[in-house]
Amino acid sequence: MDEYTFSFPIWVEFGTGASGKVGEIAETQGWDRAVIVTDPGIVEAGLTDGIVDALETAGIAYDLSDGVRPNPTVSMVEETAETIEASGADFVVAVGGGSVMDVGKTASMLVTNGGTVADYEVVTDEDVVAEPVENHPVPLVTVPTTAGTGSEVDFWAVITDTEREFKMALGQPPLYPGGPYLGASVSLVDPALTESLPPRQTAATGFDALSHALENYVSAVSPPLVTPMALHVMELIAEYLPEAYHDGTMEAREHVMFAAHLAGMGENLAGFGAIHSLAEVTGAMYPDIPHGEAIAIFTPAVMEFNRTAIPERYRDVAAALGEDVEGLSVEEAARRAVEAVEDLMDELDLPSRLRDVGVAEEDLRTIAEKSMATSEIGDNPREADADDLLEIARNSY
């Protein structure tokens, strides 16, 4: 794919080698000390080496903070914030998947705004402006190493409150031009960093990107600007994710990375729904379940629940996923969307049942009830209560 750049509200560079520009960008901004936020697996895989080389070449001092784990917790954010503050860093480089980037965002915000992570939790739209980020966070450079979350360009973060076994949504758009927000200052999107991603993670993170576009497209609050972008993301994922999973070709990885990147932009403008509500609650209660796998498990049952409310939208989803819907009734075409997703999950060897990933049947009601407290559930295209979500959970079990 061609390289590209754009700027608003952040500076983004997409293309092979983009991550190696971190030192050059730091120099242009007058930054001279960094904290690299990452996880041990990223360091072991050598994915921080190019970042370190670029910083050293530019004469930028740095500290390494590699304490992030999947489904990140409040304590990880607090420890990272302490490292940033103690180091005297004037910028942060988050190198990793969505968990790493979410910790980088939240820790950078805490350093300059204070308080606790829970102070910035968003449940309703009013929460975004009721507890705004008042001060600019420490400048953040995001360098994604997976093609899935889109966290490198969105202004959201998801952090687990272990006491509640609940994933908090944190979000802050720019409230005025140049205003502070929960997001990166610079994003360097380098598809080459996904080359060593194992097939299982390739499948799970890629399916996560698909779910972002899917829920954005059918969301009750999806604006017209997002809909063509979401459809294009689904088309790219359907075409290239199987190849990225089975063969790992760079061409396929580039297209999946681009799709995830576009989906991340869409997240800033459109809502999610019951898929994310149920998956995030499940991930908080069972932190060993990869987020993308939890997303996949709930997707068919949620689609089946929603499709009767907006069959025209699901007909479009079916077409984007490569189904021939010509001559079909709207209802039949909508059913094809569910079948297409199930076929893709089979091709990617993704789990399809909660029982297969260790969820206890007696926890289904708790999952359903907790999901009603998430920020995403209000944007689901069909109104759902706890009993509806329990039925979806049972159908996913």
Task: Describe it.
The chain has a seven-stranded mixed beta sheet with strand order 1-2-9-6-5-3-4, with helices on both faces. It is globular. Helix 10 packs across helix 14 and helix 14 crosses helix 15. The mean pLDDT is 94. It has two domains: 4-194, Rossmann fold (3-Layer(aba) Sandwich); 199-395, Dehydroquinate synthase-like - alpha domain (Dehydroquinate synthase-like, alpha domain), CATH 1.20.1090.10. By secondary structure, it is of the alpha/beta class. It has helices spanning 22-29, 40-44, 49-57, 74-87, 98-113, 125-130, 199-218, 227-246, 250-267, 274-285, 291-306, 311-320, 330-347, 364-371, 386-395; strands at 4-7, 11-14, 33-37, 61-65, 91-96, 140-144, 156-161, 166-171, 186-189. The chain contains 15 helices and nine strands.
